[in-house]
């Protein structure tokens, strides 16, 4: 029987399937961090249980760590306690931890792939909704709550109902200045912040196949922003080339065996999806969000849709969002001054993102009215950026290169955007207060963020790229 | 886990769509390492001003409204996987949340804590909001066994879906870990067969 990629991987991991019950799904790799794990460890203690398969669990500290002076003790008491608790729990339960100061430390969804832990065909979970990122390798990867973290600790399994499947095809060539972030913001704007709920999404089509692994991770990362539990892309030569030689990737005979299996991981030609959507890459412009959920996005030259054009039941919420942002119906965002630019998060903090920004800002300087933070996704990304001299370019441009962590994406540490200020951010959520109380977030690509940093206002990066070439 | 069978209560209406988990419990309150105490920060930035004084216009600060059922607009609980959102709602005294659509992870988290997420039709949700508009003390009756929710005043009733396994977990107060632990031998056999 023909199967979708999701079905192939799912079926290979079902321990037990029984009518009227969710499947018992085996989990290959469990990633954990300091914020959503302590209560799960506590639960194990209360039940008197060990971690069933500690070697299949990897920990790092990322959500609640400072991005300056990481080697000094964390100043804020609760944060220090939370990070220390992770260290203690990992020691007690025999889990490998890449904590602060470790050369492998970083955002959990950046380090998994770069260490070769994330592999095609795996099932992976983490107490973080952006676990969907790992789907870029052709893995089933999804975010879970803390009770489920405890479940995986105790049994290396999860009770899960098989999701519905959706295929999103993007075909054709992307225009100049348009990247993976624009693709995914475009899709979310088209199908809404809830349009993918209940589905696992497979991204396909020529525009997706032509993307690098970093770009594919950006796409899969934001699957959750349309409500989808996960998103994945069939592995191909680009995937295999990325994995080969990484720290924990299979090698030698193991590699050959793994590769032979990975090459079977694609949706069969006549596989049935519950839903199929098709988009044309040429229709996508650099995107920017204007509201307080990631579905409220538009091409950068467009005008904000009018409240009167919204469905009756949604008008109040829509108006509330525009009021929060301080934007008017039918207005354009071009030329709107910005206060902060944040380049980072599990969506866009990989070396390719930093290279793209560096190549754009080389010999340019940030506008005086803007504070620019670049927060690399991991120690390895930070080191690579320095090896390539990107740090010097950022310094000359007045951009501050900080140390790895989730940082201003969720404003859990001290990296917060002040009330009322506008931040063009390469992160994944523009919710009210996400980046700080009453902070206003505009989600965009690294290039669009870099353009805003240089001009001090919302700018169509394509015009700046043309100037360079003209 | 907390058991759930039947509940009759007035409601706290929050007619806003796409309420995300950052509104339910902002990230800066996720530093605690226990499950307790998140209720005081539920909807923190909608409920309190920057100086911690209550915002009188927010429904939870209006003594007219009270009850163990939170009723919210569609796509409730979107965003982050933080289970703290379910803990905060429960800690603030709610036993059920009604909406016309729930985000997946939130729904799972709620069920894993004995907080019942009830998905009703858009039309029935509108009826509930209307009933509460007319009479803030208007009560709902939730019957998990029968899978129904009833507006007591009008008698209007709708049935709701729930996975039969999760339903029995809620009624009996047991959780997924209790269930899977009984299957450990199967899990080990699965590992060996790979």
From TrEMBL, chain A:
Family named by the database record: Belongs to the aconitase/IPM isomerase family. LeuC type 1 subfamily.
Record protein name field: 3-isopropylmalate dehydratase large subunit
Enzyme class per UniProt: lyase
CDD domains (UniProt xref): IPMI (cd01583)
Cofactor comment text: Binds 1 [4Fe-4S] cluster per subunit.
Subunit text: Heterodimer of LeuC and LeuD.
Lineage, highest ranks first: Bacteria, Pseudomonadati, Bacteroidota, Sphingobacteriia, Sphingobacteriales
Protein's GO biological process: L-leucine biosynthetic process
Known catalytic reactions: (2R,3S)-3-isopropylmalate = (2S)-2-isopropylmalate
Keyword field contains Transit peptide: no
Physiological role: Catalyzes the isomerization between 2-isopropylmalate and 3-isopropylmalate, via the formation of 2-isopropylmaleate.
Domain Aconitase/3-isopropylmalate dehydratase large subunit alpha/beta/alpha as annotated: residue spans: 7-456
Residues annotated as binding [4Fe-4S] cluster: 346, 406, 409
EC number in record: 4.2.1.33
TrEMBL record, chain B:
Keyword Phosphoprotein recorded: no
GO cellular component: 3-isopropylmalate dehydratase complex
Pfam (any one): Aconitase_C
Enzyme class: lyase
Quaternary state and interactors: Heterodimer of LeuC and LeuD.
Species this protein is from: Pedobacter suwonensis
UniProt similarity note: Belongs to the LeuD family. LeuD type 1 subfamily.
GO molecular function: 3-isopropylmalate dehydratase activity
Any Gene Ontology biological process: L-leucine biosynthetic process
Designated name of the protein: 3-isopropylmalate dehydratase small subunit
Catalyzed chemical reaction(s): (2R,3S)-3-isopropylmalate = (2S)-2-isopropylmalate
Superkingdom per UniProt: Bacteria
Cited InterPro entries: 3-IsopropMal_deHydase_ssu, Aconitase/3IPM_dehydase_swvl, AconitaseA/IPMdHydase_ssu_swvl, IPMI_Swivel, LeuD
UniProt pathway: Amino-acid biosynthesis; L-leucine biosynthesis; L-leucine from 3-methyl-2-oxobutanoate: step 2/4
């Amino acid at each position: 029987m023909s199967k979708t990629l999701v079905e192939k991987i799912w079926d290979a991991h079902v321990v037990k399937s029984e009518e009227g019950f969710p499947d018992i799904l085996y989990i290959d790799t469990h990633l954990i961090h300091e914020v959503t794990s302590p209560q799960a460890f506590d639960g194990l203690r209360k039940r008197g249980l060990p971690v069933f398969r500690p070697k299949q669990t990897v920990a790092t500290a990322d959500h609640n760590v400072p991005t300056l002076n990481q080697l000094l003790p964390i100043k804020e008491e609760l944060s220090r306690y939370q990070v220390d608790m992770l260290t203690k729990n990992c020691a007690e339960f025999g889990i490998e931890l890449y904590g602060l100061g470790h050369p492998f430390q970083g955002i959990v969804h950046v380090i998994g792939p770069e260490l070769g832990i994330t592999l095609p065909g795996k099932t992976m979970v983490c107490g973080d909704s952006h676990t969907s990122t790992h789907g870029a390798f052709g893995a089933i990867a999804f975010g879970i709550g803390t009770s489920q973290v405890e479940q995986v600790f105790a049994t290396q399994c999860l009770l899960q109902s098989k999701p519905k499947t959706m295929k999103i095809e993007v075909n054709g060539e992307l225009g100049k200045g348009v990247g993976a972030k624009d693709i995914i913001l475009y899709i979310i704007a088209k199908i809404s912040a809830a349009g993918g709920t209940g589905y696992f999404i497979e991204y396909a089509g020529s525009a997706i196949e032509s993307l690098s692994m970093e770009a594919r991770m950006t796409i899969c990362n934001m699957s959750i922003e349309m409500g989808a539990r996960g998103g994945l892309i069939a592995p191909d030569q680009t995937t295999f080339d990325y994995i080969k030689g990484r720290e924990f990737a299979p090698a030698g005979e193991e590699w050959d065996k793994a590769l032979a299996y990975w090459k079977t991981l694609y949706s069969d030609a006549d596989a049935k999806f519950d839903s199929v959507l098709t988009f044309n890459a040429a229709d996508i412009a650099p995107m920017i969000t204007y509201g307080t959920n990631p579905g409220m996005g538009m091409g950068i030259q467009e005008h904000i849709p009018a409240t009167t054009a919204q469905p009756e039941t949604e008008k109040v919420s829509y108006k509330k969002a525009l009021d929060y942002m301080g934007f008017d119906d039918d207005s354009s965002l071009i030329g709107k001054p910005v206060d902060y630019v944040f380049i980072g998060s599990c969506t866009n903090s990989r070396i390719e993102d930093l290279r793209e920004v560096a190549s754009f800002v080389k010999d340019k300087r940030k506008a005086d009215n803007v504070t620019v933070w670049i927060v690399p996704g991991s120690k390895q990304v930070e080191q690579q950026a320095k090896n390539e001299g990107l740090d010097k370019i950022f310094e000359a441009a007045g951009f501050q290169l900080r140390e790895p962590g989730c940082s201003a994406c969720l404003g859990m540490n001290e990296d917060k955007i002040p009330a009322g200020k506008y931040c063009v951010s390469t992160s994944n959520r523009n919710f009210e207060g996400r980046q700080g109380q009453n902070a206003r977030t505009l989600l965009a690509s690294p290039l669009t963020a870099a353009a805003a940093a240089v001009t001090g206002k919302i700018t169509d990066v394509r015009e700046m790229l043309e100037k360079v070439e003209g | 886990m907390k058991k759930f069978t039947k509940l009759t209560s007035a409601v706290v209406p929050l007619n806003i769509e796409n309420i995300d988990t950052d509104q339910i419990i902002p990230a800066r309150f996720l530093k605690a390492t226990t499950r307790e105490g998140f209720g005081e920060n539920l909807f923190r930035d909608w409920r309190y001003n920057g100086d911690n004084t209550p915002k009188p216009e927010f429904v939870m600060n209006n003594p007219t409204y009270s009850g163990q059922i939170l009723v919210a607009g569609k796509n409730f609980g979107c965003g982050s996987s933080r289970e703290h959102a379910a803990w905060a709602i429960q800690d603030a005294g709610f036993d059920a949340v009604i909406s016309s659509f729930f985000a997946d992870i939130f729904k799972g988290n709620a069920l894993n804590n004995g907080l019942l997420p009830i998905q009703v039709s858009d039309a029935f949700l509108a009826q509930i909001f209307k009933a509460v508009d007319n009479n803030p003390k208007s009560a709902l009756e939730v019957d998990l066994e029968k899978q129904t929710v009833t507006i007591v005043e009008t008698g209007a009733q709708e049935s709701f879906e729930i996975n039969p396994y999760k339903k029995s977990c809620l009624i009996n107060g047991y959780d997924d870990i209790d269930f899977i632990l009984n299957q450990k031998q199967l899990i080990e056999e699965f590992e060996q067969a790979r």
